[in-house]
Amino acid sequence: MTTQVKVFYDRAANTLTVWFGDAQDEHVCEETGDEVILMKDRTGRVIGFEKLNFVVPTTEHLRVAFEAVGA
Question: Each residue of 10-69: pLDDT tens digit?
């Protein structure tokens, strides 16, 4: 089984969006109050999130690193 994570940074909108489920399965969004929006499927499972007001200075590059933990 292969798991795919998609990361989108929109510099114009200042948003960072991360999907670890199929974006087409999005059914409802829930704002956490910390400028984070959770995207959920019909069963209520979180399949992605969006961080609002996420800014990377223009002099820096956005780097993404993943680490698998556990068995």
Answer: 989 999 999 998 999 999 999 998 999 999 999 999 999 999 999 988 777 878 888 878
Q: How would you classify residue 35: left for phi > 0, otherwise alpha for psi between -120 and 50, otherwise beta?
A: left
**pLDDT tens-digit series, residues 19-28:** 998 999 999 9
Element (H or E) spanning 38, and its range? strand 36-40
Residue ranges per structural domain of the chain:
1-71
Listing from the earlier edge strand, what are the strands of the sheet with 36-40? 6-10, 15-19, 46-52, 36-40, 28-31
Q: In this structure, what token pair is assigned to residue 24?
A: 């087409």
